[in-house]
Amino acid sequence: MGSTSPHSASASLAPLPDDLTRAIERAGYYPALVGDVVQAALGGQEVVSHLVHQETTFDHDVVRRHITVLALTTSRLVIAHADDHTDERPDHEDLATATTESVPLSAVRGVMLTHVVSRPQDYRPGSLGREITLTLGWGAVSRIDLMPATCADPDCDADHGYEGSVASDDISLRISAEAEGDAALQQALGFARELSASIGHSRPADRR
Predict the structure, then answer these.
(1) How far is C-alpha 136 from the geometric centre of its chain's CA atoms?
(2) Among 28, 60, 118, 142, which one is least packed by beta carbons within 10 Å?
(3) Closest CA to 16 of 46, 56, 57, 55
(4) Helix, strand, coil tally for the chain in percent (to 5)
(5) Backbone angles phi and psi of 189, in degrees to 5
(6) Could you tell me if 34 and 67 are in contact, meaning their C-beta atoms sit under 8 angstroms apart?
(7) pLDDT per position in the chain (208 positions), as tens?
(8) Of 181, 179, 199, 190, the residue nearest 51 (C-alpha)
């Protein structure tokens, strides 16, 4: 039995929409890699709406890049995240990781938009500000942060077991028109509207 190469497997999937491909290319973070992992996660389903968000952070003297792609189909929310994990040794080799998660729309708990409005006394109706934070909650994956439990007695050396907190790995993205442009802000608002309208009631699944 012949084996299937990665290239032939990728070619058998439906191509990404042109506007999503262009958004991934504009972000500039290994677009071929990101495009392939998003395409594989979609598995041929049609993309109703999407959001691509690229961010650069500074960890001491190391610059790290991150990209998040959100793709909405009629039945799922696909989340793809890729970032740098560069080895800091002198002979280092660049390394990137790309993770995807597929969430049924029935599992999405909510879509929260925080609008940041400067000079609210001068707010013009319909403008909605120049910056938003988009938070999506689905609670599909949670982590438990544990630490040794303590008591108020500084001289106590008894074993009090462990205490901890449960934190969900939901996602929060900040989009600013000043940093990323009006088009990016409007794309994020449109995606939030589409996703909000899609949750809370069932829609027919895409045909493969």
Answers:
(1) 9
(2) 60
(3) 46
(4) 25, 35, 40
(5) -65, -40
(6) yes
(7) 444 454 545 556 789 999 999 999 999 999 999 999 999 999 999 999 999 999 876 666 666 788 999 999 999 999 999 988 765 656 667 788 899 999 999 989 889 999 999 899 999 998 888 999 999 988 654 545 555 667 777 777 776 665 655 545 578 999 999 989 999 999 999 999 999 999 865 444 444 4
(8) 190
